[in-house]
Write a structure and sequence with these properties.
Elements: H1 11-22, E1 27-31, H2 53-60, E2 66-70, H3 75-82, E3 94-97, E4 102-105, E5 110-113, H4 118-134, E6 141-144, E7 149-152, H5 159-176, E8 180-183, E9 187-191, H6 197-208, E10 212-217, H7 223-236, E11 240-245, H8 253-256, E12 261-263, H9 266-281
Parallel strand pairs: 1-2, 1-10, 2-3, 10-11, 11-12
Antiparallel strand pairs: 3-4, 4-5, 6-7, 7-9, 8-9
Helix pairs in contact: 2-9, 4-5, 6-7
Length: 285
């Protein structure tokens, strides 16, 4: 163990980090985008990867089996906002967008995508009028995500009040169109069933034959990915390290409680990735 690396607080996390350091060529490093590699900002279209994120990933990638970004954003958007294309060291980066419904591979530079769920289009048409009828929440707005829709309350006068008031009605609207509602931090996302980061991550880990995994996330949408790593640890003996990217005061309790290691947001995660890359460059790794 390298002394400068943060110390996981759980035995499973310590085993996961030890396995990654011992056999990095079998390790998959998978990371969420917003809140993990990029700071959370009021306008999601202005989100960009932390300036140190791409260099840190490029330093780490040559030492591990694979680096993947797992996000609810469209894959192409994540690639643009992350600045991931054409980066030396990231020639084999994979971006699993829309919770795995889309996949971008740096090798080809192209996006592969499944057919869209028809319920998204019908919900898209109904949502503006539905919100008007549900109640006036100034500052609430709709984000178009292509294969999903998101209602943000972060700019509302009462963000938490708007979030709680809209959660039930939006769950009903989602169900009426064959979709599910996924709550996040002051955001409510309507998406097709069977789309989550756990499914995407589990399929990718089996595809790559991962011998260990590091997953980093920051919000409720990352819990299925945490669960996928926990299942692999318990059922298949694959070591894993779960990282929560959030300052302690801003951490999502349900996620932080399951994390093996918490870092204070994207800047601290970049520091961790750089430290990990440096550790793997030492003799014997």
């Amino acid at each position: 163990m390298v002394s400068s690396l943060p110390h996981p607080t759980t035995p499973a996390g310590r085993d996961g980090l030890a396995a990654l350091l011992a056999r990095p060529e079998k390790a998959v490093v998978a990371l969420d985008f917003d809140g993990t590699l990029a700071e959370i900002v009021p306008d999601p279209e202005q989100a960009r990867a932390h300036p140190g994120a791409v260099p840190a990933l490029a330093a780490l990638a040559p030492h591990v089996a694979s680096v993947a970004v797992v996000t609810g954003r469209p894959a192409g958007v994540a690639v643009r906002y992350g600045g991931f294309a054409g980066v030396p060291g990231l020639e084999h980066l994979v971006v699993l967008g829309h919770y795995g419904a889309e996949r971008w591979d740096a090798v080809s530079g192209t996006v592969q995508a499944a057919a869209p769920h028809p319920g998204v289009a019908t919900a898209r048409a109904a949502l503006p009028g539905f919100l008007d009828r549900t109640g006036a929440w100034p500052g609430t707005w709709i984000e178009e995500k292509g294969r999903a829709l998101a209602v943000h309350t972060r700019r509302a006068e009462d963000p938490e009040g708007a979030f709680e008031a809209l959660k039930g009605p939006l769950a009903d609207l989602a169900a009426a169109h064959g979709l599910v509602l996924e709550p996040g931090r002051l955001v409510l996302e309507l998406r097709p069933p069977g789309m989550d980061k756990g499914i995407a991550l589990a399929e990718y880990l089996h595809e790559t034959g991962a011998g260990c995994v590091l997953y980093a996330g920051d919000d409720l949408g990352d819990i299925p990915a945490y669960a996928a790593v926990e299942r692999l640890r318990d059922a298949e003996g694959v070591p894993g390290l779960l990282v929560c990217s959030a300052a302690e005061s801003a951490a999502v309790p349900d996620l932080a409680a399951r994390a093996d290691l918490t870092v204070a947001g994207p800047a601290a995660l970049v520091d961790f990735l750089n430290t990990l890359a440096a550790a793997l460059e030492k003799p014997g790794n």
